[in-house]
Every structure is written in C-alpha cells, then in structure tokens.
Predict the structure of N-acetyltransferase.
Amino acid sequence: MKSEVHAECLSGEHILLEPLSLEHIPALSLAVSDGELWQLWYTSAPHPDEMKEYIETALAAEKKGEALAFAVRDKLSGEIIGSTRICNWDQANRRLEIGYTWYAKRAQRTSANTEAKLLMLEYAFETLDVMAVEFRTHWHNQASREAITRLGAKQDGVLRNHKLLSDGTVRDTVVYSIIDREWAAVKQNLKFRMQKYHV
C-alpha cells in the first residue's frame, strides 16, 4: 500500500520549490515561452496551451503516491522560472526518479538547477529514505547527460527503443542513478559547486 505524501516547500538560498498547483498555470506558461522550450524535440516541456493538462497529470500521479511535483521560484525576482518533479516513485522498493525538469531560458546555466537537485536529493535520501534516485534522459540530449554526470550520478545503462515520441521518432533512454551510500559525497560536491554562486 502506497502511503500518501504531499509535496512540501523546499527552500534554498536562491530558489524555492513550491508544490505544483493549477494556480501556477499562468506563470509556468510564461516561463516555458522563454526560449519556446516545447520546440526542443528532446525535452518534455509542455506547450503553454497544454499547461493545465500537464499540471493535472502531475497532480493525478501525486494522488496515487507516485510523484511529487514542484514549481521553481527565483527568490530574488519572485518569478516562477520552471518546474521539476519526483516521479516513478516506487515506495515499496524505496526508489524514485527526478525528472520532468525544465527552466525558462533566462534561468538556464544559473544556480537554479544545481540547487533544485540538491534540495530534491536531500529530501529524497534524508526525508523519504530512498535507496536510489534515478535520472533519465534522451541519448541525444548531450547537455542533459553532462549535467546529470556533474551531479555525481553514474550511468546504469541505455534502454534502446524505449519510447515513441510525439514526432514519430524513437527515443533511446540513458538511465543514471545515485544510491544511498554515495549520497554523502554527492551532497558535499553539490554544496561545493553552489559556493561559486555566492555573492
């Protein structure tokens, strides 16, 4: 039986991860339009017109105990700059995935993603008590693969012909993970990387 857990606010120095709700539709529609992220064929960012359905799907998965979804708010500007999610949460086997992550173009290559991953990994290992956290990405999404490796995740393998995409192409999915005994070193590395963003 899956225990019901609701997303809670996770606060960092630069960003706030707040539980995703339908009230975020306008702000997230604006954020995803910065860079027209839905046009990037290797990401899963929604079109602004699909934002309501995107959020409803995330909330439905949360109700089943399979996900915890967040909107990412920039603390300095107060703006919503993206979204991320704990997903494919297998509570019985203490595993989950961090995915469905996208940021407005202006927030890319900033501290936002590093701090969001630090907050979510800390929550996963230290509050939800998982044994492993997975990350999955498109074989051709080199930037994402490099970012996942920089987090300290190790490649588990490649799921070939894993998914049929909306444009008719087939996705090979690269699977990475961080396991519980690696978490202390990964946390230290992420905190060290965050230091370069301190003013």
